[in-house]
Design goal:
single chain; alpha+beta; 4-stranded antiparallel β-sheet; 3-stranded antiparallel β-sheet; 3 helices; 18% helix; 33% strand
Amino acid sequence: MLLNVIERNGYGQSLWNELDRLHDELSGGFFSRGGSTRGFHNPPVNVYINKDDVLLTALVHGFDPSDIELSIIENRIQIKGTNKRVENQDGYEIHCQEVENRNFDRTVELPFRVDANKADAKFKNGILSVNLSKAEADKPKKITVQIEN
């Protein structure tokens, strides 16, 4: 109700801008890098883990694979996408533009390190699939229990 009164009196946009600023300040800018208000979007990811490997999939539709950058450092996987803006089509002006042309920068942190040398990435139908192997040092080890006499 208070928000309706504020918006009716023309203060709504500045209030939302201030709330966005406070949100960014309180979150340390975490969400502003992937949030929807700063020209970025945060592509959804799925992460599947088994005993030895990790499969990460990210929905990055609308991006050319050559515009996607993948970095792997220890236990962090960073995916960046730079979308080349499509301006007006020749002979047309924009009537409606709902398809987003935003960049993204998403980092996924795993609970273990991965071996970047064994990483493999594929792109199909707007889905990026990254196969990773757990670092040997972080794989579970079997230890045989010795019987003492």
